[in-house]
Amino acid sequence: MSELRTALETDAELDALREEVRKLRKINGALMDRVERSTDMSANAFSMFETAISLEAKVRDRTLQLEDALGRLAKANADLAEAHADADAAQVRLRDAIESINEGFVLFDAEDRLILYNEAYLGFWPQVAERLDQNLTFHDIARIAAHSQGPAGAQVAPDRWVSDRLAKHGIADGGQVQRLADGRWIQINELRTSEGGIVGIYTDITEAKAEDARARARELAERNVVLQSTLDNLSEGVCVFDGSGQLAAWNDALRRLLALPENFAGALGSHAELQRWCRETLAMDDQGCLDWRGGGADQQAMVCLCTAGERHFELRSNAMADGGQVFGFTDVTDMLRAQASLQETAETLERRVSERTGELVDLNRKLEGEVAERRAIEAALIDAKIVAEKANLSKTRFLAAASHDLLQPLNAARLFVAALGDRRLALPTRALVNQTSTALDSVEDLLEALLEISRLDAGAIQPEIGPFRIDRLLQTLNVEFAPMARSAGLAFRIEAQPLWVETDLRLLRRILQNFISNAIRYTPRGTVSVACIQHDDRVEISVTDSGPGIAPEQQALIFEEFRRLDTRSQGKGLGLAIVKRASDMLGHPISLRSQPGQGATFAIALPIGQPQREEDGDTGQPTRDRSMRDLSVLVVDNEKQIQSGMRTLLTGWGCSVVTADGYDQAAALFDGDRRPDIILVDYHLKDGETGDTVITRLHDHFGVRIPAVMISADRGEPLKTQLAAANIPLLNKPVKPAQLRALLRTMLA
Fold this sequence. Notes:
Layout: H1 2-37, H2 43-100, E1 104-108, E2 114-117, H3 119-124, H4 126-129, H5 138-147, H6 158-171, E3 173-179, E4 185-192, E5 198-204, H7 206-232, E6 237-241, E7 247-250, H8 252-258, H9 264-267, H10 271-281, E8 302-308, E9 311-319, E10 325-331, H11 333-421, H12 427-457, E11 466-469, H13 470-487, E12 490-495, E13 500-503, H14 505-522, E14 526-535, E15 538-545, H15 575-586, E16 590-594, E17 600-607, E18 632-636, H16 640-652, E19 656-660, H17 663-668, E20 678-682, H18 691-702, E21 708-712, H19 717-725, E22 730-732, H20 737-748
Parallel strand pairs: 12-14, 18-19, 18-20, 20-21, 21-22
Antiparallel strand pairs: 1-2, 1-5, 3-4, 4-5, 6-7, 6-10, 8-9, 9-10, 11-13, 14-15, 15-17, 16-17
């Protein structure tokens, strides 16, 4: 189009130049003629000669311009011819493309006139092919199709079909289905073009419709087979009549019960014939239950007990929604005879019971006292059971609710102690800090043991089995219990070997803690020693004391709750009960070797673990991690003690710490482009807010995914699974500073 426009503009310009040149030539000729005829050599004649010369120069310029315009016109004509050739080629390709598709294709312009189509489209409307030279619109095509009765819907009311078709065509927002008079089905999809026209795709879906009909027929046939099979397996005789009173379905039980002939469906194929057979042939007293009531399903079912000679039937009549009716016949002759026999038997038994009643009265009187006493005992037992269940439930609820509140102050204490340990302290003070940290570890582990074992009783947790070096655990226990042994005046020795075992570290620690603490508590003088020996595929850890020993008859009792052999001790009798539960759960056998006056040895056998690659451990010296210097940390926790403890600990590592109690406060602390380097969030916050929600909202607030760590006292698997799916690390309370530091190093590496 641009080439055509350029050519037209060039033609107009050329015509204007031609007209101007013609005028100049005419003027120049007139002037030259006057000059030649004039003999006057005056100034006026000379002036006219100069003018003629000037005009001749202008004619020459105009001529050059005309020649240039003619050249440009020739080039424009050549470009226009090439564009026409390209358009013709594109038209041929487009025509070939739409003819190659199986679906019918049609294109209407913005004035809804037919401009492009294929033979497949004419195959649906053959009447239109005869009038393609008439510059047809869609309205013309719809009217031709309707009045030629091409669509099935146009056979009754063609004008209405045309109106509906034009309305759908004008919308042009999707597909519709039409059925043709020759039995074919087509799916029409119409959409508007960018120029306001409409393009339509016509697809023959006759085979799909036929397959759908065949599938529905198969489904209906299968349902009929299932229905008939169900009817044939009923012991009740059933017959179904349609709205006109004709027999529609029945089963063999009906023929047997009513003694119908083999061809009864033909001979007795109506309700009237069945009614006549029952009343006249069988002499059935139906009490009107056989009357026709095909008035709709809103009528209630009729049920009556009728007789036919010596036989008895339960007759049931139900009206159906389509005006039909269902009759059910159940032979209850044997049942009534059995009832009569039972009635007779009951009367006989009643006489016998009356005779025995007098004999039983005295016995009942004697038994009433025993029953009353037994009921009182049972009531007392039930009350005791209810009290025990309530107490157990209350304990479980208390432990579940208290886990978070109990671990919160421990977490704060651990953070403060860890922060104190990072400072330069005198050796005695540092020893006190280490002992405090060890004591906090012991309290934490014992508390967690009680909470976890309580959950284990309910089947709520599973042990976390993994490999670790047993000497590391024994060294920790040495630090924990050596001061206790010294204060009791006992020699305390631990023989640790670098052996790997496969078990749950926390539960094993609690088992050994109970072994050692009991040994120290019940040994008045002498030695308490811990040994670690490998036997084939097992590692035995034993705790031996020089105490009074345990008699054989008492060795099984000490593993029960609240069992103490020495009532003078301060123990509650729970330690070995916890040991028994934990060892049974882990599947690690425990043993006791003891004789009165010869001390006792408690031992547990552990499976050997696969050695693992170890990282360099913490030297224990208070150092400031250079990788954390000036690190911006956002701590979100609703407990002020936890905020203070975290601030103290992280500030000691060189971090810049900001604390908040929830999302709103955290978001308000950072404005502009400021954001933290890492986020530490408690899971349970105020007003039902959770840590994962806070992390997500902070990521949206900062517009970037900032590394985040979740901190929680919840050790359940659902939370672990949820955070693992979100790729959020989890630290359990009380937080161990070494674990926190290692995790921060890893995340910031």
